[in-house]
Amino acid sequence: MSAPVVVGYTATKAGSDALALATRLARASGAELHSVIVLPADTRSVITPPKSGYDRYLQDQADAWLADAVADLPAGLSHAEHVRYADSFGEGLLQASHEVGAGHLVVGGADGSLRGRHRVGTTAAELVHTADVPVVLVPRGARKTPLSAGIPRLTVALGTRPGADEVMAEAVRLATDTGARVRLLSLVTVDLPATVDTGVIRVAGAAHAQDVLARAQSSLPADIDSRVVVGDGDSIEEAVAALDWEPGELVLVGSSRLAQPKRLFLGSTATKMLRELPVPMMVVPRSRAAEGGDPS
């Protein structure tokens, strides 16, 4: 069985989006689903009366929200629900992830984001700079994707620098567990400065990108359906918008070279991608041996 999937749940549309994606991921990979609500720790609560009755009310309310949230989970999906107390939502989710040995941590976007778009809130921002497990950022409206969509394809964003081992290994694990197809993507010739001779650089860069992608593709197991594509456009956002995206698809990116070993750090290219992505993005931690995984 695959490592558990942990989802940070709130009784909001963003929470429902996160739960929907986590459910599809857990079901497709055969993993156990753990839904977690994090309540403020006593040391943080400055407006809540320190009364046991009120604490009991918060606990009961969180239990009720979780019960409602998982009432319609598909039959046969192994799941568990948890209420945790922590100084921050991100801290509580990481603690829960460590307790259950999670393979993935799923969080929704901030309130106010447009449907099909990402908006990184406080919790997601905290996690993409501190987590030591892959974090999946879910755009608004993901709950509308049918459960039957599963995880049909993984788009793996690769740069030309060394250090893509971890994101490729994660892609292989996910593709093997879910049966998803793999699309290897390079954006190396996109978003060049206006002051350079873009024509020459694009030709040379495209050839180099194709070589990098071909070598990455050759490293995949033979039974994984894969293809390669080099993004085209005057900016990262334009190139991402021009690509086709399937309902239920996941994008995988590695952490920036600035990331500490076995930690996440969302690089500049991944941040630009996130502005236009209509599908969830998974950020994979940098390994101790990696030299950099930002797909730039």
UniProtKB/TrEMBL annotation:
Domain UspA as annotated: residue spans: 4-139, 153-285
One Pfam entry name: Usp
Record-stated family: Belongs to the universal stress protein A family.
UniProt protein name: Universal stress protein
Organism this protein belongs to: Microbacterium awajiense
Organism ancestry: Bacteria, Bacillati, Actinomycetota, Actinomycetes, Micrococcales
